Amino acid sequence: MLKRRQLFQFAGVAAVAAAGGAAWMYYGSPRSEALAGGPFRHYPFDPVAADNFQQKLFIPVGSGPFGVLDVAGPLKIRATAASFPLLPGRESPFLLYQTEQAGKAYQNPILRIESGARFTASLDNALQEPTIIHWHGLHTPAAMDGHPASTIGPGGRYAYDFKVNNRGGTYWYHTHAHELTAEQAYHGLASFFLVDDDDQRRVSKALDLQLGVTDLPLVIQDKQFDAQGKLLYKPGAHEAMMGWLGDIMLANLTPNAVQAVTPRTYRLRLLNGSNARIYRLAFVRGNKALDFTVIGTDGGLIERPETVSEAFLAPGERLDVLFDAGQARPGEDIFLRSLTFDAMENEGPAAGPGGMPGMSGMGMGQMMASMSSSRLPLGLEFNILKLSVTAGERVVAKLPATLSQVKPIPTEGATQRKIELSMGQMRFLINGYTFRMDEIAFDVKRGAVEIWSISNPALGMPHPMHIHGFSFQVLERIGSPPQIAAMARFGQGRTVSDLGWKDTVLVWPGETVRVAIDFAHDYPGDQTYVFHCHNLEHEDGGMMINFRVKA
Ligand SMILES: [Cu+2]
To answer: Residue 388: CB partners within 8 Å, gap ≥ 6?
Structure first.
């Protein structure tokens, strides 16, 4: 239900739009005002304004949109153009994966499957443009991975058939269409891929968790909308380079969502499904950041529960957290919030080497931010989800001391490899490469353990780097900026987001992040995968390389 004030805002906006006036994205605040006098407040669905959080969170259960589909046989998935009511009462064009099982229809289903099971699916492309699905985080043969070279045209079909080798965890699937990933993912082509195993069941049992009730998959996305409430995606040259930012926050496709909770522990499977936005997550009551417990990262459970009060989450990353809503009293609200941080977008001396000429006096990041059409600059504080604590039995969770085993990758004698991120010709590069479909940046030996030292120059921007086909372990962060160093409680400069098995790691300007990767696999022949930035505009702009695992 909309509150009176919001209805008034909507009515006002509608009137402006109907009168042929400015679209409501310009209602009130061009960017210049934000730079001059701090960010504007109270546009419709402005996530900074706590009282906007009125829409009931969409929780996946049963069939239908985001329904939980326990995979019980081969699936026929159809990527299709459809519409979806993202803003209340306003249909927006949207892209969906449609499928059926046992007579039930699903759109963008949350696929759930047992570790070790076989996954068989066909993808039919019913779009007007090429597409392909990538199973993010899964260890599959290259031909099953959704490499951009596997992209199929309109009317085409792709057959997937692989064993789910990964341990239990919160994975996801999304489009990886060559140079169309950002636009297609933004318009809907993404959902969860949950893998179950004994460790996962043990945690669920110990905490009495139930998927869709107290165990909530939560995809966080920022979007822009036009005057009619339709999704807007129109990156200019600067946004195509830096990344497209939204200014309305969706949790499970619900804008400004609210969820009632009782004083007990909830599991939130947080997925950053945004194109380019990084979040500094905290659960806040009043102005106090409350404790939460991280139990898993990209590739499933970590070894021990780790209690923190904040964590960064970059595009593509997942964080499995336990939150005890009993930390607040019935009637109180808690906000899952992104706290203020330094966005570090090309800061430092302007117009230096690699910077843009003729821009002295203004950092390039500042200049770029001033050219963004989003009213919500990167690093600004805003809300994502409101948890309203209601009366109920106080349940105090008894967490197992050990969640799972994460065996360290043996790194003695490992091959060392330097991965250098850089910028040139208005695009971001990896080891000097911009993506070419048939160009292999380097070979690795099947079965080899490698240590990749991923370095980001001081004058750059944060890049969430994602590897296909394999998971890695973060060994060390070197040269971290203060906001990361302050969270480095886990040895070797690592933060809680670095623990366990990872497939995506955020590399900040000035940092070198060392990761260990074991290239063992049992697929026949050479296997070619991509390694890329998961800022989707960066990826589509060519911040991606092929690497080949030689048999
Ligand atoms: Cu990037």
So the answer is: 258, 259, 260, 261, 333
Asked whether residue 382 falls in the same domain as residue 235, the answer is yes
Paired strand residues for 118: 163
* Domain region containing 470: 415-550
CA distance 272 to 190: 11
3-state secondary structure of 411: coil
- Find the 276 Cα to ligand 1 centroid distance in Å: 8
CA of 130 to the centre of ligand 1 (A): 23
267 forms beta bridges with 215, 322
Whole-number pLDDT of residue 501:
98
Task: Give the distance (Å) from ligand 1 centre to CA of residue 542.
Answer: 10
| Residues at Cβ < 5 Å from ligand 1 ion | 463, 533, 535, 538
315 and 419 both lie in a single domain: no
Tell which residue, 61, 105, 59, 62, has the closest CA to residue 80. Answer: 105
Ligand 1 geometric centre to CA of 374 (Å): 18
What is the rounded CA–CA span in Å between residue 409 and residue 519?
11
The pTM is what?
0.90
Span from the CA of 480 to the centroid of ligand 1 (angstroms): 17
- pLDDT beneath 70: ranges in the chain: 1-42, 347-370
- Dihedral sign (CA 374, 376, 378, 383): negative
Asked if residue 440 and residue 379 are part of one domain, the reply reads no
Tens-place pLDDT, residues 205-231: 999 999 999 999 999 999 999 989 999
Give, as one character, the DSSP assignment of residue 502: B
Name the nearest CA neighbour of 549 among 442, 449, 466, 445: 445
Query: 385 and 236: one domain?
Result: yes
Tokens 């210049």: give the residue. 32
Cα→Cα distances 227→6, 232, 330, Å: 15, 9, 38
pLDDT, tens digit, for every residue of 118-169?
Answer: 999 999 999 999 999 999 999 999 999 999 999 999 999 999 999 999 999 9
Distance 516 CA to ligand 1 centre (A): 20
Q: pLDDT tens digit string along 51-99?
A: 999 999 999 878 999 999 999 999 999 999 999 999 999 999 999 999 9
In a shared domain, residues 488 and 352: no
Q: Calculate Rg over the CA atoms of the chain.
A: 22
Pairing of the two strands 64-65 and 104-107 = parallel
Number of domains in the chain: 2
Phi, psi (deg, nearest 5) at residue 143: -70, -15
pLDDT of residue 334: 98
- Interval between CA 271 and ligand 1 midpoint (Å): 18
